[in-house]
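Hi R.,

As promised on Friday, here is the backbone we talked about, encoded as structure tokens. Could you run it through your design pipeline when you get a chance and send me back a sequence?
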């Protein structure tokens, strides 16, 4: 199981390298990510492939990707349910 810091690092790396969100390195975990629809889709697919998450809109509403903190919390809860 990943720690919150490990999850944060993985998400920051993904957003920086795959979504080209270079400002991510200057953002706190509580800053709004403001992802466009393509970036949100890329993020959802990444989360499904990396963590086996259900990425349906019901299981992962848009608010889930509002901040790094919300994403980390969602992944952590999903991992605990699966365990």
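Update: got your reply. Pasting your designed sequence below so it's all in one thread:
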């Amino acid at each position: 199981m990943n720690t919150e810091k490990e999850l944060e690092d993985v998400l920051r790396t993904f957003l920086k390298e795959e979504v080209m969100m270079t400002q991510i390195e200057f953002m706190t975990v509580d800053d709004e990510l403001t992802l466009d629809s393509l970036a949100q889709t890329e993020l959802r697919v990444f989360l499904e492939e990396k963590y086996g998450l259900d990425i349906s809109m019901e299981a992962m509403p848009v608010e889930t990707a509002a901040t790094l903190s919300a994403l980390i919390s969602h992944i952590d809860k999903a991992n605990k349910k699966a365990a």
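One thing I noticed while checking it: The domain at 4-82 is CATH 1.10.1200.10 (Non-ribosomal Peptide Synthetase Peptidyl Carrier Protein; Chain A).

Thanks again,
M.
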